[in-house]
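User:
I would dearly like some help making sense of a protein record. Take your time, and here it is.
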Amino acid sequence: MLTPIEIQSRTFKSGLGYDKKEVDQFIKEILAGYESMYRENMELNDKLNTLNEGIQYYKTIEKTLQKALVLAQKTAEDTQAAARKKAKLIEKEAENKASAILADARDELHRLHTQTVQLIQQYDRYKAQFRSLAAAQIDILESEGFQIHVANPEAFAEHGRETEAAGNDSDVRADSDTSEDDAPLSPDDDAEHFDFIDLEE
């Protein structure tokens, strides 16, 4: 495409033909229109280049965004997969711990049950032993060897009162002479006084 300068510098041979002034005038008019069109064309080319550059820039951004989106999606999928895997591991670990706790609880319950049964059995044995011991003690207390037989309880009680009264009288006569009647009883005399007491083994 010819530039305005090329059109302006273009020369023709002189000779017979068109009028030189008219041709020069027409060329000036064409030059003015062509120059305006040429300038507009250059501006449009510049705008087109700018737009192309902008489109290319946005295409680059779009590709970057697409890559970032794909990467984010992949990261999200990987994160979800890792989270699911970790959740399964935590769930499995929790189940194992729960099973261990239940097993320990069952063992402890069995141990306590066994210990309780043993304590109850031991208590029953001790109770039977104490019952047997108490029965034996009652039998001993009720045996003939622990019985006291008094032939005449009233006379025995009266003799005790007389003995106490005699002791009081001897205190009053502490400074007087001892008579024959006040002499202590001999073993034979004691036998005569206590012949009503009958103790049996």
